[in-house]
């Protein structure tokens, strides 16, 4: 199938074609990357836009259960939902179970839904390297909501905030106190902190945990892109479905305010700059991963280990040989003029 035909089927909402397209963009083969770039250009030209919701939380907090019931609720409201789930890869074999689709049996059977599990591979930050490109394909396929479920690795998992319009942090009852809530990292980039499993014997504990986080959020400096009352803490029971409409209302109110205030478009522009810089760094590293470069790097590493040459000088020589246009001038310490990844 040529790229134009594949893109046409994706735009028409063919879920099998969408799965095939995501497989293509996840491939690391050079000839596939060229086709993937052309496919993404076709998809982006459609100009379609979905609400991107990032969802993170510690393992066992109930992310899959939350996504399934939340997605079914959105479908009942006439929305099409795509779920991009990232599973951790084995440090030994590199493989991943990719079992999220099995956990969301009801949502997976809904014709208005699309679920795609992907391995994290060696990419850090809780998402896969090509997750953002998969979001673009889901938007081109006409989905209204794209839910991005992260691995759930901990407090440093903030990359998903760079590809989502709303970032939800799912917490378990008794997950921490106010001191835990004011820690920097994932807490300070969350738009909503949702305490799950607020049912049965854990209902009281969940309410107390939510109050702790709400108190902690009042101690944090309010961000320019947040209206009064955000970020906020809420309780839900994904199992019983209670609290889910309130979470959706809170998301919708936040997005509406950001659109009216101009923060929505500005944030997406900043995210585009972030991912351009990230892709540029990845491309530079790929240039250093060719067989000649790897052989030269191994020989240079031996010289560094033997104390024959400082590591900084070794790096400069490698850049001058394999990336001469990016190497700093001799006698100078100027760096690449790349966009600020924190923009």
Summary of the model, kept short:
The protein is α/β, with parallel strands linked by helices.
Question: Can you characterise this structure?
Answer:
With 343 residues, the chain is an alpha/beta fold. The protein has 2 domains: 1-46, Single alpha-helices involved in coiled-coils or other helix-helix interfaces; 48-261, 3-Layer(aba) Sandwich (Rossmann fold). Helix content is 48%, strand content 12%. The protein has 14 helices and 7 strands. The protein has helices spanning 3-11, 15-26, 30-44, 63-76, 100-103, 105-109, 131-140, 178-181, 186-189, 203-219, 244-261, 263-287, 291-305, 311-322, and strands at residues 51-57, 81-87, 113-119, 145-149, 166-171, 192-195, 232-235. The protein has a 7-stranded parallel β-sheet, with helices on both faces. The protein is globular, with a radius of gyration of 22 Å.
The shape, in one word, is globular
Count of spatially separate domains: 2
Write down the CATH topology of the largest domain: Rossmann fold
- Output the strand order for the largest sheet: 3-2-4-1-5-6-7
Which oligomeric state applies?
Answer: single chain
- Count helical runs: 14
Structural class: alpha/beta
Low-confidence stretches: 89-97, 331-343
Helix content: 40-55%
SS strand fraction = 5-15%
Mean pLDDT over all positions: 83
Order of helices and strands: HHHEHEHHEHEEHHEHEHHHH
Tally of DSSP β-strands: 7
Q: In the CATH classification, which architecture of the largest domain applies? A: 3-Layer(aba) Sandwich
Question: How far do the termini sit from each other?
Answer: 39 Å
Given this structure, which CATH class of the largest domain is correct?
A: Alpha Beta
Q: Over all CA atoms, what is the radius of gyration?
A: 22 Å
Largest sheet, in brief, is: 7 strands, parallel
> What is the CATH superfamily of the largest domain?
P-loop containing nucleotide triphosphate hydrolases
